[in-house]
């Protein structure tokens, strides 16, 4: 019997035991509300904004969208799906335009949205 079917036939309380890993300690971040960044949204990278600080370890990023409220994701300083502004350009990776913006040029967009320079350590 394939392992997946064995897992399905095992009671939940015994199948989870020994498979759940302890959470690692998440370092404090130094992000501030309004900071701009580039973030992975599905299979593309889009401009995004830090919209809320949850605590010293976690914050909320919202993808920029001029047509409707953008998707949000919860991040921490070590998240692998967020990048500083200009990362896509520096690595020759296309940055997906902001929905609803007809002429998308990164420096122009950032100047219109009170971009704060962001350097990741």
What is the number of helical segments per DSSP (H or I, 4+ residues)? Answer: 4
- Name the poorly predicted regions: 114-121
Taking the sheet with the most strands, its summary is: 5 strands, antiparallel
Number of strands: 5
CATH class: Mainly Beta
What percent of the residues sit in helical stretches (DSSP H or I)? Answer: 10-25%
Overall morphology: globular
Description:
By secondary structure, the protein is α+β, with helices and mostly antiparallel strands. It has one domain: SH3 type barrels. Helix content is 18%, strand content 24%.
Summarize the structure.
This protein has 121 residues and is α+β, with helices and mostly antiparallel strands.
Which helices and strands appear, and what pairs or packs with what?
Elements lengths: L2 H6 L3 H5 L19 E6 L2 E10 L4 E6 L8 E5 L5 E2 L3 H4 L15 H7 L9
Key words describing this protein structure:
24% strand; 5-stranded antiparallel β-sheet; alpha+beta; disordered C terminus; 121 residues; globular; SH3 type barrels
